[in-house]
Amino acid sequence: MEGMTRGELAKRTGLTAATIRYYEDSGILPVPSRIANGYRMYSEDYLVKIKFIKDTKSLGYSLKEIQEVLHMLKQEMDAETLKALVRNKIVEIDEKIKSLQDIQAMLGGLLQTPQDEILNYMHSFRD
Questions:
Q1: Which residues contact 14 (CB under 8 A, 6 or more apart)?
Q2: Does the model's pTM come out above 0.85?
Q3: CA proximity to 6, closest of 34, 26, 36, 28
């Protein structure tokens, strides 16, 4: 049987063997078949799946979201469903950006606070 061991897969993907094991244990990656000596043998498909996981993580998807998408991809998912998932992530990112901009504006406002107010505020924490 052709394939690669977990160590070989780790080297080829840049992940640790522990990360690959975690992905298997949590159901993100399917558990591979074993050969006679008990070693797990990973097919080339695992390279594609791990690249997908790494790429989607870098786009801000959580492991739970990635697992859900991978499960959907196993089924007959159409392109519009995948596009809808991407649109939803864009909306989520826009909301996060707005929230961070609000926080940034608040912090900027705090920098405009007069020195004596800051000192009085800090003094209130002292006994």
A1: 54
A2: no
A3: 34
DSSP string of 80-108, one letter each residue: HHHHHHHHHHHHHHHHHHHHHHHHHHHHH
Structure-derived torsion over alpha carbons of residues 47, 48, 52, 58, reported in degrees to the nearest 10: 50
Residue with tokens 């799946």: 49
What Cα–Cα distance (Å) separates residue 7 from each residue in 12, 37, 55, 57, 117? 9, 15, 21, 22, 59
Whole-angstrom distance, CA of residue 12 vs CA of residue 92? 32
pLDDT digits (tens, 9 = 90+) for 70-126: 998 888 888 999 899 899 999 999 999 999 999 999 999 999 999 999 999 999 998
* pLDDT digits 0-9 by tens, 113-126: 999 999 999 999 98
> Is residue 77 a contact partner of residue 110, using CB atoms and an 8 Å limit?
no
